[in-house]
Specification:
Blueprint: H1 3-12, H2 15-31, E1 46-51, H3 57-68, E2 72-77, H4 88-96, E3 118-122, H5 125-134, E4 139-142, H6 162-186
Parallel strand pairs: 1-2, 1-3, 3-4
């Protein structure tokens, strides 16, 4: 693997992830396509973190939010097997960042009763589309858009190399803390 490929894999999670990142970034920057998913609503009763498997991204965000904020929070997956633990590598990374994910167990989105004042926090635009299909009137934000340097697409670290898993885990923690503070200030 040459230097350029190594850099892309470490920074974005892979070549396909890089292409998705560029694609969604261009849509956001030039057409403001995802702007509406950058501002949480004024009134939120519960935060629901959503990703595909509920073992990496949403599980980590859930752990961070639950640890740092006194609020109702759950996480779920769009395509997961219920009652599975969080990914061991992400658990290890979370532990180094000060978060314990050992009690986490996966939940499928269809196991939740989504209410009007729930805020669904997605990791990528495809998740937004899936959530809108399940709950057409849901309040939705993209977690990466909470960052000071917003990112639309947070690639799944499940099969990525360690440098990317570490990098994206730190971004998820940072974005979750920013979201939590924003929601706390709105109450």
């Amino acid at each position: 693997m040459n230097f350029f490929n190594k850099k892309i894999v470490a920074q974005y999670g892979g070549k396909k992830a890089f292409v998705r990142h560029v694609y969604y970034t261009l849509l956001h920057r030039f057409f403001s396509l995802y702007r509406r998913y950058s501002k949480p609503p004024m009134d939120t009763d519960r935060v629901i973190f959503v990703c595909k498997g509920n073992i990496c991204r949403s599980a980590l965000a859930h752990s961070v939010y639950q640890t740092q904020f006194e609020a109702k929070v759950v996480s779920c997956g769009l395509d997961t097997t219920p009652s599975q633990p969080a990914n061991p590598r992400i658990q290890k990374i979370a532990k180094t960042l000060g978060y314990d994910m050992s009690e986490h167990r996966t939940t499928r989105i269809d196991q939740l009763d989504i209410k009007a004042n729930d805020l669904l926090v997605c990791m990528e635009p495809r998740h937004v589309q899936a959530v809108k299909y399940i709950a057409p009137n849901a309040n939705i934000v993209l977690l990466g858009l909470m960052l000071e340097s917003p990112i639309v697409y947070i690639h799944d670290p499940f099969t990525s190399i360690d440098p990317y898993a570490n990098r994206v885990s730190k971004k998820i923690v940072e974005a979750t803390l920013i979201l939590g503070k924003a929601l706390k200030n709105r109450q």
